[in-house]
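Running co-folding for calcium ion.
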Amino acid sequence: MSDQRPDIDRPKQTPPQPPASLADSAEEEAERYDDAIIGRAFRWSLAVLVLVAVGTGGGLYWVRHRPVKAAARLTTLSSPVVPAKLIAEIPVARFTDVTAAAGIAFSHNNGAYGDKLLPETMGGGVAFLDYDNDGATDILFVNSTYWPGHVPDGRQPTCPALYHNDGTGHFTDVTAGSGLEVSLYGMGVAVGDYDNDGLVDVFISAVHGNKLFHNLGNGKFADVTESAGVGGSGQDWSTSCTWFDYDNDGKLDLFVCNYVVWSKDIDFEVGYKLVGIGRAYGQPRDFPGTFPFLYHNDGNGHFTDVSKRAGVQVQNPVTGAPAAKSLGVVPTDLDNDGWMDLVVANDTVQNYVFHNQRNGTFKEIGAISGIAFDSYGQTRGAMGIDAARFRNDDSIGIAIGNFANEMTALYVSQGKPLTFADEAITEGIGPASRLLLKFGLFFFDFDLDVRAADHRLELMMCGMRCWGVPLPRALCPSIEATESEEEGRFCFDVQIRLPLIGRLVRYRGWLTGQ
Ligand SMILES: [Ca+2]
Ligand SMILES: [Ca+2]
Ligand SMILES: [Ca+2]
Ligand SMILES: [Ca+2]
């Protein structure tokens, strides 16, 4: 039970004391122990001090070098300003109508008597030629005539008119006795010296019978159609035509466009009518297509019809029927190989490009060359046509006048040979020409800046505002001259604006033999 007494009653136990020598070494041990603790504490304090110093220094550095927030910028808003457009300076070149003062009194007769026959909507061409080699350019007007059985009382069938230029710009009608006073329903004309005798000869295309007139000199022409063999079948409706030497034998050959298969009976079978108006001029889609003619000049006054073997008769791929409905042709060397090619404008049918194969034949490459259709792959009502290197470089432009609501086409050669793209919009003539109904057109240098460094060609279009619906004459601006700007674009100009309806227009410079 003594074990359970409280400790207070027990005597204090004193721990056993070590001997003196042992006590000294323990004291030294304790001192060393204390030194270690103090050293460790000192090192820790030093480390903490260093960390504090580093942290403080870094903080101060950051405070001093922290990125300065950019001051908010205030922008004053203003209305957008339309940039000033560079406007090309169009040279002033005024034209004056001198027809009457020059002594020209020609008036075209389409023979219309009320039956609205389709050929009455066309004709006729005109040619500038120096038939008597006096150095002054003369003029030949193609005429149509009255329809059989519909010659008004007191009138005579009409014929072409030849005007002689006296060298001062005054003309005299010299048709009588010239041999050209032949009545025909004329359409187009091509002049060229086919027999190389130095006298320019005349081919006239017509409805139901073409004519070739050989220039005899002394102002006389002989109708050599029969012996030359270029009259056609007598049932053709021939339109645009051109002399060109496709086989490079030095003798001019002849290409003749045909439009549609037409007769008065066919026209009445088609029976085109407009609501509220009655019988009206029909549409080319309603008439069968045709083949053009290519005549090879044999060199003895005779020509051979080589249309079939030369490859210019394009058939409808489905029906095999003749496909062409041609109104315009232009000979030009598209690939610059020294052999003349042909581009043919077709009305409501794809345009043709006849590429000269240098062996007497042509290959039709309209579609793959990019000229056959518009940019949507559709055909247009193509009529007038011309070709020119209008940019004064190697690129060639093919301009084609199209129907109303169809832009004038300007097919321009691209980097790849025989490849063209319609650049009418970027050249500035597309939208501006869309509403007009375009017929003839040509490139020409209307301000004669050919003498300047920048030889520029302009494009003239001839046409009318609408089709089949008469307009007040004053509202019928029909001729538009366009001028190419410095950089090659065209812009519309109204230097020539007459209230008339033009159908054909063509200009040629000093091309030898053509
Ligand atoms: Ca002359
Ligand atoms: Ca001749
Ligand atoms: Ca030839
Ligand atoms: Ca060629």
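Result summary
The CA atoms of residues 20 and 480 lie 137 Å apart.
The longest helix spans residues 20-65.
Job closed.
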